[in-house]
Write a structure and sequence with these properties.
By secondary structure, the protein is α/β, with parallel strands linked by helices. It is 45% helix and 16% strand. The chain has an 8-stranded parallel sheet with strand order 3-2-1-10-9-8-6-4. It has a two-stranded antiparallel ribbon with strand order 5-7. This is Xylose isomerase-like TIM barrel domain-containing protein.
Amino acid sequence: MFKNLSPGAIGIRATLPEALKIAKEAGFGGIDVSINEVAKMAAETSMDHVKGLFAQHGLRPGGWGLPVDWRKDDATFEAGLAQLPGQAKTGAALGCYRVPTWVLPYSDERPFREQFDFLADRFRRMAVILKDHGCALGLEFIGPKTLRIGHKHEFIYTMAGMLELCDTVGTGNVGLLLDCWHWYTSHGTLGDLRKLKVEQVVYVHVNDAPANVPIDEQLDNVRCLPGETGVIDLVNFLKILSDLGYDGPVTPEPFSQKVREMPAPDAARATHAALDGVWQKAGLK
């Protein structure tokens, strides 16, 4: 595993060269990329030049967010799907093979089974393209009960439910974007984590939860830095992932207003320091 920075997750807006410098100086081992920015840079210079920037800073590429707008109408989806082979080729050329996205825990259009089949079909079509380039698709389940209230149809919000969807897609390159926040708010257990196979985990998010708030009252956009409150058992979460043999990015996603208000280098340093604290407690290298 390596400590990975997603600049946007902590409010940093920067070009890839700027973000690489910020991530390196803060102590991270990797960084997420915009696949379209990488493609543009490679077209203007070369992929070797882009890879050289990573090597210069001693950083690994973490992941790139799935760029296809699969939540929209057929025409929008098909237009995005047509671009995916080129984007996947770019990711593979960079050595960046992890492609995460998130799945809402409700639908106001389709009942559960219809939504399940609808998404399985769309994810399958995208996963086949990604697989052609050695890339894996990571699906994030969204745990908080507060997000499901007031919507017409409840959908997947647990790890077990999302694994069932991954299995139904059936391409062999679809697994979890495993976020400790959603594991916690869905009432997940350490025992659940221990049952995972390493190939079922594509990408990992970490954070913490506000203290003195019942699990079912936690709000998705109110989080804390890793280890800030100790509400989420992040030390054992990380230990189990390490024991599984997960070797991918571990990315803080704290949704912290105080972090977002910091200058970019300070935000990155504060985020790394928080992650490093639980990293050391978990005995990770």
